[in-house]
Amino acid sequence: MKQSLATIRQDIRDGKWTEQTAGLASGYTQANLVILPKAQAYDFLLFCQRNPKACPLLEVTDVGSAVPKLTAPDADLRFDVPKYCIYRQGKLMEEVTNIEAYWQDDFVAFLIGCSFTFEHALMDNGLKIRHIEEGRNVPMYITNIACEPSGVFHGNMVVSMRPFHAKDVVRAVEVTSRFPSVHGSPLHIGLPEQIGINNLLKPDFGDAVMVKEGEVPVFWACGVTPQSIAMSSKPELMITHAPGHMFITDMKDSHYSVL
Amino acid sequence: MKQSLATIRQDIRDGKWTEQTAGLASGYTQANLVILPKAQAYDFLLFCQRNPKACPLLEVTDVGSAVPKLTAPDADLRFDVPKYCIYRQGKLMEEVTNIEAYWQDDFVAFLIGCSFTFEHALMDNGLKIRHIEEGRNVPMYITNIACEPSGVFHGNMVVSMRPFHAKDVVRAVEVTSRFPSVHGSPLHIGLPEQIGINNLLKPDFGDAVMVKEGEVPVFWACGVTPQSIAMSSKPELMITHAPGHMFITDMKDSHYSVL
């Protein structure tokens, strides 16, 4: 039996669900989380504006508030993510299941669109997602494409890769183009070495998947980019979700389609 | 003979062109301008993120820089707009043709998408724009729709109106949906009283245009919203372009289509 969003969120809040969220609360938009003190929030907000494919913003909370009042007004971002990462000076120091003890009055939380949304749309269109078929995490790579910097934030873009049979690539572009607020259309098709990826079998994050004869690798800007940016920019303190352990909003995926 | 973008920008910079920019440098994206001191920039940047249909951001300059390095790296926002408005405490104090004397080291400039871009797309699709046919300014109305507030910035959304024959309304939605970064799809179709507009013949900005028998009024979120927000939020100092006197970027309109 499928569980309701309310039940799932309560289980996460109570620490009963600390696993990945792929496939949970199907149809509801999941989001990447970045939390920074207000002193760094302007630079990061502008970083997102300048890099909308990697960091498409769904919502930014008011200073000191853990409530995303526009996309999930009953949620609390201190508890409602299954697992969090605490970065200090760009180093992952700890993984925790709530951040009550870390919360500061000057925190700002950024919710960033996640590829789960467009993967649902691709599957609705009959396209199979290899890493889901294989039961793995999506392969992610750090590219040679520099993000547009903003203040202290700089670094290279991270992309995710999904292989498709050549005949399906056009449809994959069409379907994902309709969702600019969850990474939108692909960043690159076909020649990974042109974006600094020399070995598809060795992703920087996630798991390698098989690219079969007659298939083309298709790359999308990835919401893991902020973690990579944290590592290169080394802010004093930055809290994120743990990869794959997303925040589930009240919004339906279809809400984010522009067409 | 059509003039090049470079010639037009030089004429504006030299103060030789101080008129509206509609139809100038056809194909190049024009932008609304808002300039605020850094102290207000975070709240305004977040205001734009929360109100993307009214305030779709094309670029935000670095603090103190008048150069929009991503959309027009050779331009200077102190000179390259034909006419500027100086607002103090929400009141329009002065209109000037350059802001050299007003520029401050803590200024941040926001370039916001403009409906000229989607009007070109509508005309390319064979749809006629009434206010252009009549040689008038587009009619704009303050609605009863509250913007999502951010810090000091609050107020109601401004919309522009274009009437279309009922048979053309669907195409108008389709065409403009492809341009989310220049206001995107309409905000409302058909019943102006539902969004607080009681008399189409009395716009709050611009000129009234004829709505003929068999036509439906279609409303888009409007880049004049920031001026209206300035009036209701009363920041100490805010500089904008004068309505219709836009900044012309180096970007082509087609760049902003997501599909």
From TrEMBL, chains A, B:
Does this UniProt record's set of keywords contain Ribonucleoprotein?
A: no
InterPro entries tied to this protein: D-Glu_cyclase (IPR009906), Putative_hydro-lyase (IPR038021), UPF0317 (IPR016938)
| SUPFAM superfamilies in UniProt | PSTPO5379-like
GO MF annotation terms? lyase activity
A Pfam family (short name) is D-Glu_cyclase
Q: EC number(s) for this protein?
A: 4.2.1.-
Gene3D superfamilies linked: PSTPO5379-like, PSTPO5379-like domain
TM region(s), chain numbering: none
Does the UniProt entry include the keyword Lyase?
yes
Q: Which PANTHER family match?
A: D-GLUTAMATE CYCLASE, MITOCHONDRIAL (PTHR32022:SF10)
Name listed for the protein in its UniProt record: Putative hydro-lyase BLL40_11845
Q: Which organism is it from?
A: Domibacillus mangrovi
